[in-house]
Design goal:
With 803 residues, the chain is of the alpha/beta class. The structure holds adenosine-5'-diphosphate. ATP binds at residues 618-625.
Amino acid sequence: MMTQYLAVKKEHQDCLVFFRMGDFYELFFEDAITASKELDIVLTSRGKTEKDNIPMCGVPHHASENYISRLVKKGFKIAICDQTESAENKSSKLVKREVTRIVTPGTLLEDNLLESKGYNFLMAICDEADSGSFGIAFIDISIGDFFTEAKNIEQLFSAIHKIQPKEILVPERILRNDQISKIIREWKVNPMPDSRFSLRSSMERMKSFFEVTTLKGIADFSESEVCAAGALIDYVLLTQKKELLSLSRPKKLCESEFLEIDPFTRKNLEIFQTMRGEKNGTLISTIDRTSTPMGARLLLMRLMHPLKNALDISERLESVRFFKQHDATRNNLISILKKIPDIERSLSRLLLDRGGPKDLGAVKSALCLLPSIKMIFASHKECWSIPNEISDAISNINSDLGEFSHKLSTAINDELPAFLRDGGVIARGYCEELDELYDTHFKSSELIQRLQEKYAQETKIPNLKIKRNNIIGYYIEVSPSLSSKIPFSFVLRQSLVSGMRYSTQELIEIEQKLNVAYSEAIQLETSIFNGFIEDLRSLTEKIRKIISSLAILDISSAFALLAEENCYTEPVINDSDDFEIIGGRHPVVEQAYKNSYESDFTKNDCDLSKKKLWLITGPNMAGKSTFLRQNALIVLMAHIGCFVPADRAKIGVVDHLFSRVGASDDISRGHSTFMVEMIETATIVNHATSKSFVILDEIGRGTATYDGLSLAWSCVEHFALSAKCRTLFATHYHELTELQEIENIACYTLSVREWDDKIVFFHEIIPGSADRSYGLHVARLAGIPTNIIHRAQQVLDRFENRL
Ligand code: ADP
């Protein structure tokens, strides 16, 4: 067996090998030492090599998922080596074992290893010889979604951050490029031989996998996209050890279709994570009202890829408007959607032969709910004109799966076991033969009961019991003090302190009958179950369409509910350079105000149609950052097709959303606060166009006053005169307000009033500029002792007089 183990280990040196032995997965040698340390489980030993014991540790196979998930989360790869033949029918002692799956962070399938509302992308990156361009391909095998993108090196960093892959495959040669190594080093990178990324084999792999003679029919991929996609498929096939893999055809994402958001902006706007790395308080957590995991993932995808085409955005908005107007329909729909399980992931597991009865149960309950969704819309069809996006979704849901779902609903029980081997998956009445086997099984149970009563009478031991365990099967148990009453025909099997265990010929015969019936029943259930999987394979395309339609219905109705609950409005999106927000609010801060009941969030207008750059001055705590961010978030929300927190909004499509807010060190990359600030500013200056939307908070604060002021000055001139982008620029440098002489610039401030030596913030944006920073007032509010504030005031007076 050790020879067998060593052969497997030799093939999977980069993995921890989980070697199946009976009811356990065992690990040996270095793997055992590592796993026992990482999992905090006992390290034992087995047999001997020439001199030493072989280190060994093990986990019960039924609980293995939990241990595997802990190791995978720590970055390990696991090779699962299973027994691929039954030990019972073997004459020799050694059963055949094979690696049936390699578990890696990017190829997870199990619900308990995955975030229900998130993606688990595996990515491959391939360079294109001497051209400086890259192909990236990414896939979530728990769903089947597959994408490619062509990028240059400047865009690579941003693309990886956007997708947040759990594992990245690269050709080894790429690691020799310092620039790329720097970009990918914070991710889990899996270097592979260059040959795996060869164009010829990748092209062949793609063509045979998707059964096409040319890839042109799928999309116009670049060579490096093909290489990345081919390597990705290869890797998935290798780790899953299955040719059954079913993936959607790769969708080529074109940058020109999407509003671009760089990683700094995404971080600053706290879209997916707050600055502190939390989920609560993010934009996504504030606007997510979806009812299904599929809808929640679509929201994530839309936030990753906001649209740039006014017509496409308007189509999405039309769907939201429809559900906002027809609230009864929406509420009925939502109440059904809430019952729909994560059929997307269940389907993928079933297609990969890794699904259990509960996954088929999920497909059944989802499909059975479709007619009621159909009904909601059928009854209103004539009265309304249903928007295209919704009517397409409904017609997909209407697609003819009636017969299959009827079969599924009569065949599959409502209450299901975790594993097929536990039985009870197929409903009574569906298969006569199966019912008969279970009848025999249950009749035998009755026989056992009767036998127990008979033996109790014969031996005059009233508490004699017939019990069963997995090791010795059925046995008769009596307490040791009564063993003298047991007849000679009873054969002693085990003697324990707690009881003496016997067997009889009669009991053995009943047990055999019972076992045969039970194992035949399980076999039959398994074959019926597998029949359904085969049906699913032929219906995969249709079911995937249904799933994406459910996600669209979910997100559109969820956006409508969100809009109603929070009085959001439908933005007007067009191709102009307009930006006109009346009564705008910050979605996240407003929500926090609602929850705390203290006061209302103050609405603010922002009209950049005439003057494209607003210079905003005002003391700390007046609300500058909130105002800047709320307008950027309104832009983003509008571009994903969501209503926005405002009374009215008119927005000309934006090509790139930029933000530089606050300052933080990035010590891990060796960047000081000021360096980070300048890198972010440089990105904006180099890329902003007249279609961009820019928010800048406090440029130049991380260096000496005059350096900072001059940098801020020249940046404002650049944005107003050259880039001509829509810009909100908050600053403490009052000197900058001189720039309002430039035609494109307007000065705004936030109203504050001094009262009784204190300042009161109204958070209201008004034309004009602040005459001072009120820094000392804020310091007082923060608890700096009076004597220090007093002294600071004297110093400040001296400086101001000197100026
Ligand atoms: P600044 O950037 O001027 O220092 P912030 O934007 O950080 O100010 O806001 C300071 C505080 O004021 C925050 O706690 C914020 O919640 C609150 N605030 C900001 N804008 C508003 C508003 N429009 N209505 C109500 N509260 C606001």
